[in-house]
Design goal:
Blueprint lengths: L1 H19 L6 H10 L12 E9 L17 E5 H4 L11 E6 L2 E11 L7 E3 L1 H7 L7 E7 L12
Parallel strand pairs: 1-5, 2-4
Antiparallel strand pairs: 1-6, 2-5, 3-4, 3-6
Keywords: Signal
Protein name: RlpA-like protein double-psi beta-barrel domain-containing protein
Organism: Antrodiella citrinella
Amino acid sequence: MRFSTAIAGAVLALPFFAVANPHGHHKGRHDAIARRASGDVAHLNKRDQFNNVRFTFYDVGLGACGQTNQPGDFIVALTTLQFGGGYPGPNCFKSITINYNGKSAQATIMDECMGCPYGGLDFSRGLFDYFAPESEGVLTGSWSFNDAAPSPSPTPP
C-alpha cells in the first residue's frame, strides 16, 4: 500500500514539475545570443581576408549568378558555404583581389563552388593560367574583397 501511495503521489506531482520548467531561465540568454547575429550569415564583409586558402580551376559556362562566362574571364566560383542563398547569391558580381606567389589580380565572383573548402575559390582557366600553369592543379594563396569598383585585371600572357 505504501508503494502505490508513493507512486500515486509522484504521478500527481509530475505536472507541477513540468510547469516549473527549470530550464526556462536560459531563454533570455539564448534570445540575446540570437540577436547578436545580424543579417545573413553567408554575408561576407569587404574587410574579410582569407589567407592560406585553396585555389583550383574549372571549366566555366553558365554560372550560378546567371551569366555565361568565358574561359579567359577573370572570374571565380565561391564556396557554397560563403556563396549565400537566393538568386543571384548576395556575393554575386563582387570584386575581389587575389594574391599568389608575388602576383596579384582582380576577379569577379560569378559562380558557386560546391566542392571548395571554406575560403577556397575555383578560378576560370584564364585566371589560373595568369598565376601558374594548370599542371600545378592546386595553389595556396590569399584573397579579399575590394572596397571600390573593380579596376581592369591584367591580361593573361
